[in-house]
Amino acid sequence: MDSETREVYSMHTDGGEPIQVARFSPDGGFLALGSRDNNIYVYQVSEEARKYSRVGRCSGHSSFITHLDWSADSQFLQSNSGDYELLYWNASLCRQITQSSELRDVEWASNTCTLTFNTIGIWPEGADGTDVNQSERSHDARLLATADDFGKVKLYSYPAAYPKSLCHTYGGHSSHVTNVGFLHDDSRLISTGGRDTSVMQWMLV
């Protein structure tokens, strides 16, 4: 839909459950949709984002999709699900890559998935998998921010690849933090609250 004229460019229906997460590929050529029906739907984007053609469905998760990330070259996806799986996909073929070692040198355009080899250190001891709601890597790939159920925003050096990685912890929200994201120039971090429905800006100095 055009945000100004409200013209509807395209309408599609996939599955019978809500879409949980949507991510455009870095080159703008694909759109990946993670659904609560456990599948990821991939669309090819053309005609200046006016036309969306379904490429296929990535099927393999046993629970709903929670997070998605594209590789920097727009060829691969990594995804998390509600039962704490981490799976990898060839996006254009919608085929699961079962040997994670094949992607060891892949550069990821983002790191919103909370369960990856680069985010092992964000999980506190005894965590049940639901404590960290979101992670986000800065655009310069130096920092990793997280939002958790304890009302805290945490800042790590990226990657946080070792257990109990050191971090700076910041408070401000009165309940769980649902999301975090860096501005395009990494000058500020934006966090959103759950029950307190607040949006906060954090200056990076």
Automatic annotation (TrEMBL):
Keywords from the UniProt entry: Microtubule, Repeat, WD repeat
Pfam families referenced in this protein's UniProt entry, alphabetically: Beta-prop_EML_2
Annotated EML-like second beta-propeller domain residues: 4-203
Lineage: Eukaryota, Metazoa, Ecdysozoa, Arthropoda, Hexapoda
Protein name per the record: EML-like second beta-propeller domain-containing protein
Recorded GO MF terms: microtubule binding
UniProt WD repeat ranges: 58-90, 170-205
GO biological process entries: microtubule cytoskeleton organization
Gene3D superfamilies: YVTN repeat-like/Quinoprotein amine dehydrogenase (2.130.10.10)
One GO CC term on file: mitotic spindle
